[in-house]
Design a protein that fits this description.
The complex is a heterodimer of chains A (about 375) and B (about 260).
Chain A (H helix, E strand, L loop, with lengths): L16 H24 L10 H26 L7 H18 L13 H5 L15 H25 L4 H20 L11 E2 L3 E2 L2 E2 L3 H27 L1 H18 L4 H27 L1 E2 L6 H14 L5 H20 L4 H15 L7 H13 L9
Antiparallel strand pairs in A: 1-4, 2-3
Helix pairs in contact in A: 1-7, 2-7, 2-9, 2-10, 2-11, 3-5, 3-9, 5-9, 7-8, 7-9, 10-11, 10-12
Chain B lengths: L5 E10 L2 E11 L4 E5 L6 H8 L7 E6 L8 E2 L5 H7 L1 E4 L11 H8 L6 H5 L5 H13 L15 H14 L4 E5 L7 H14 L4 E5 L3 H8 L3 E6 L2 E7 H6 L1 H8 L5
Parallel strand pairs in B: 3-8, 3-9, 6-7, 7-8
Antiparallel strand pairs in B: 1-2, 1-4, 4-5, 9-10
Classes of the chains: A mainly alpha (about 375), B alpha/beta (about 260).
Chain lengths: ~375, ~260
């Protein structure tokens, strides 16, 4: 057997030239060219991406950020969190509070209070809502609320050395409990209707094509930035340690590393970034409600990662887009079958394509090589 | 006589009523290469667990000296990584290397240095670290396989890599659990030579079953026989071998 020459020496180059090109070109096309075509071409032009398309892609980009977080935890660090949609939703809710206040008196009831508060008989805005008039405060909450929850949960769980399936179940219980809480009207976040009917963000009309383009561009920019950040994290010695914790936490511990702190750091960082993605998602879909934090949503994100290719950074992006495009199609054509399709897809990937979609080219090449060179079995002796 | 670097006094550890370690006293002196033998279930691995923070003793003290003075650091309050940082490294019975990482990266992750999250984020290998890695790779004879994934190494090579990882962290005390398991006779002999060459600069405890190997590495040093969680006897290899109590429990059980 020959030595595997492929290596991942510590501190390899961040990107090769070809990798930079394959990062920058799609990013520019998505972030600049598509919005420009959308803005400048006449509405009936075939080359013009529709407002609907841009909005859809923007939504996918925020999903891809969620998926990247799942993969950083699962594919690199070995923590299968089944509660990542919770952090996504918390970011969404925090920003939703700001958007709700920005409606002003344009709501159904022409009140300063959000509609659902009028409906539920609130006399005044609860004190903890006041600071959400400020955009910077809301933005900080988008990052810090998920991060704080992740910190408290992670600190308790990782310090107690809970891992594997037990940790997965706990994360699922956490998001389930949160969903139940948010479903309650008296919890004060709009119950099962959540927040909706947003009008404007930073003074701009949310229904205008220009605002929607800006939100789309922001989503693509966030995805690109998060991709680069995670790339950097996984390349450095830190990334090697993450994978070492995944493959043999004991050895890392006995090598002098406080592994719980490494896990906590990644868990909190991912929660904050996932919250940011959720905050961009909400104004693009126009609603946030507790169904976004049910356990199924988190599991769906895990399926995106598995389908796309776990342990790579491009896989989760491909998976998030592919599965959601499939979902858009399936829920149109055969809505009652969607969950069967999703489950079937997961099984097929686990059984036949453990490397996900990103492993297809390699699989295809080995298949071709086999065709060309017949198997070297025992020949005539 | 100088102070011990590591001392365990009157240590007891019980698992579900079973006394894995029973009123154990153990003293390791600086620069010594100590071999620990004992039949299965004698408490050898539990003893290492207690020394490295994996398990806490029910009673007794375990102390470590980070200078020439008497041992004063209580190890029973510390966890695995804190004890490692004090300079006590452990090699496991089954080689635990990072299978998906290259031999080189395995050593980089083990290299002595800051262990914090931010230190790892902004870590750079300087030239003295590279030199050190080169010499370690030569020492453990894996220089030509530095870019191999550790998972592809043979069992014996993995054992060597783990010893190399241990040395990379520059410990003062090395706890080595069955280093020769799964090795050919020649590899075993070379492992023995390596351990003997480390004597003096490091204080070493080796747990081993292979008597040829024990004889080789004891080389005039002391051998400790564990039996039912306590020290049965201690002394030079030949004395231990001819001790009737040892013959009874370990070498020739049933010869009554």
């Amino acid at each position: 057997m020959s030595a595997p020459a492929k290596l991942s020496d510590v501190e390899p180059r961040f990107f090769t030239r070809a990798q930079w090109a394959s990062f920058i070109v799609p990013t520019l096309v998505l972030a600049l060219l598509l919005p420009l075509l959308n803005a400048l071409l006449p509405a009936d032009s075939l080359l013009r991406p529709s407002d609907f398309t841009l909005n859809l892609y923007g939504k996918y980009a925020t999903y891809a950020v969620l998926a990247l977080g799942v993969d950083l935890l699962w594919g690199y660090l070995g923590i299968l969190s089944l509660g990542q949609a919770l952090f996504f939703s918390l970011g969404g809710y925090a920003f939703g509070m700001h958007l709700l206040l920005m409606i002003g008196k344009d709501g159904q009831y022409k009140s300063d209070l959000p509609d659902y508060m009028v409906f539920l008989g609130y006399k005044a805005l609860p004190a903890h809502w006041e600071p959400f008039y400020s955009f910077p405060f809301a933005l900080a909450a988008v990052l810090l609320v998920p991060a704080l929850l992740a910190f408290v949960f992670g600190w308790l769980a990782f310090r107690s050395r809970i891992k594997g399936v037990y940790l997965s179940i706990l994360t699922q219980a956490l998001t389930y409990a949160a969903a139940l809480l948010f479903f309650r009207n008296d919890f004060g976040f709009g119950g099962n209707n959540g927040f909706t009917d947003f009008k404007r963000v930073l003074g701009a009309d949310l229904n205008s094509p220009a605002t929607r383009r800006a939100l789309y561009i922001a989503s693509i920019a966030l995805l690109a930035a998060v991709f680069l950040l995670y790339r950097w994290l996984t390349r450095a010695k830190f990334g090697h340690l993450m994978q070492a914790i995944r493959d043999g936490e004991n050895r890392v511990l006995f090598s002098g590393y406080a592994t719980a702190r490494y896990k906590l750091f990644v868990f909190v960082l991912v929660a904050a970034i996932t919250g940011l993605a959720g905050a961009l998602y909400v104004p693009q879909v126009g609603i946030i409600n507790p169904s976004e934090m049910t356990a199924e949503k988190s599991i769906e994100a895990v399926v995106w990662v598995a389908v796309g290719g776990r342990g790579t950074l491009i896989g989760p992006i491909i998976g998030a887009i592919f599965v959601n495009a499939l979902k858009s199609w399936a829920t149109r054509e055969a809505p009652e079958r969607w969950l069967y399709i999703l489950g079937g897809l997961f099984i097929v990937v686990v059984l036949f394509l453990p490397g996900g979609i990103v492993s297809l080219p390699t699989k295809f090449r080995t298949f071709l090589a086999k065709l060309r060179r017949p198997p070297s079995g025992p020949t005539a002796s | 006589m100088s102070h011990p670097i590591l001392q365990a006094e009157d240590v007891t550890k019980t698992y579900d009523g079973f006394r894995a370690i029973n009123a154990l006293n153990f003293y390791l002196f600086p620069g010594e290469l100590r071999t620990v033998i004992g039949p299965n279930g004698a408490g050898k691995s539990t003893f290492f667990d207690l020394l490295t923070g994996r398990a806490k003793p029910d009673t007794g003290t375990i102390r470590y000296a980070d200078s020439d003075a008497a041992p004063s650091i209580d190890l029973t309050d510390l966890n695995e990584y804190e004890i490692q940082r004090l300079g006590i490294g452990r090699k496991f019975q089954t080689p635990s290397v990072f299978a998906e990482h290259t031999v080189f990266t395995n050593l980089v992750l083990s290299l002595k240095g800051p262990r914090g999250v931010f230190a790892s984020l902004f870590h750079r290998l300087d030239s003295s670290a590279r030199d050190r890695l080169d010499s370690l790779l030569k020492l453990i004879r894996l220089d030509d396989k530095r870019h191999w994934k550790a998972g592809l190494l043979s069992h014996g090579e993995k054992q060597w890599l783990e010893i190399g990882m241990l040395l990379a962290s520059e410990p003062r005390v090395l706890l080595v659990d069955e280093p020769a398991a799964g090795m050919t006779d020649e590899e075993t002999h070379r492992t023995g030579e390596l351990l003997l060459s480390l004597r003096g600069q490091h204080s070493i405890v080796v747990v081993e079953h292979d008597m040829t190997f024990v004889k080789q590495i004891s080389d005039g040093g002391r051998v400790t026989v564990l039996h039912q969680g306590s020290v049965l006897c201690e002394g030079k290899f030949d004395d231990v071998q001819s001790n009737p109590k040892v013959r009874e429990v370990y070498l020739g059980r049933g010869k009554h």
